[in-house]
Known about the structure:
With 267 residues, this protein is of the alpha/beta class. It has helices at residues 49-57, 89-99, 104-117, 133-145, 163-180, 191-197, 231-244, and strands at residues 10-18, 24-33, 38-42, 64-69, 74-77, 151-155, 183-187, 200-204, 211-216, 262-266.
Amino acid sequence: MPEAGLMPALxxxxxxxxxxxxxxxxxxxxxxxxxxxxxxxxxxxxxxKSTLLRIASGLETATAGEVQVAADKLGxxxxxxxxxxxxxxxxxxxxxxxxDGLPKQERRRRxxxxxxxxxxxxxxxxRPRALSGGMRMRVSLxxxxxxxxxxxLFDEPxxxxxxxxxxxxxxxxxxxxxxxxxxxxxxxxxxxxxVFMSTRVVVMSGRPGRVVGDFSVPFDxxxxxxLRFEEEFAHLAGEVSxxxxxxRQRPSKPPPQPQPVERIxxx
Length: 267
C-alpha cells in the first residue's frame, strides 16, 4: 500500500461497471497501487479483471466510482500480441512511438533499445509469422516500452504459452521491472505466476468482481527460478488459492456501496 502522503500510481475508489446488456462486471472495487509496485490480480474467469485494466487505460468508463491515474505514459500489453502481419519486428516495435508523433530518429533509437532489452536483436527484419508465440509477445512488450511508460498494464500476456516459455518470460519481465522501475498491474489466472512476479497479489471474487483478498509477497528481488519450489512460496500460494476458492477472504467486511457518479482523474 502507498506510504502516507505518497501519490498512488493508480487508484480505484468504489468503482463499479455495468454494461449495456445489464451485466454487472465490477461492484464497488477499492484498489490502490503505489509507484514501483508490481501488483498481480487473480480471480475466476469473467470476474472483471480485464475490465479493471480497460477502465484504468481509458478504453472503458466506470459506471460509478473514481479512478485516479497519475502516470503520464501508460503501457498496455494484451492477451494477444496484436502485431501487424505486414510489418517487420522493427516496424511493429516503432508503431506506438510513430502514432505518438515521435521523430523518426528518436523512435528508431527507442525501438532499437527496446528490442535489445527483450532479446530480439537478431530478428528485427522478421515478420510475425516467422516468430514463436513467446517472441511475438516480446515484440508486443518492446512496442510498449518505446513509450517509456511509468505504469504498465498486463492482461494475461503469457496465458497462451507453454509452461517453460511462460516461466522464462516471467524471469525476463521481472528483469525489465528491476531495470526500468515502472509500476505494474498484472492480470493472470495462475496463482504461481502471480506470487512469483509480484510485490502484492490481489484476489477478486466471481462476478460481479470485488476485492476479497490482498496478500503482500515477502520475497526479495531478484527472484531465482528455484523460489517456486520453496516451502514459504508454496504456503503463500496456498493461501492465495484458498482465498480464490472462497475458503478465506481478506478483508472480511463487505465493500462500501458504489457512488452514483464516476470521476476519472488523470495527471
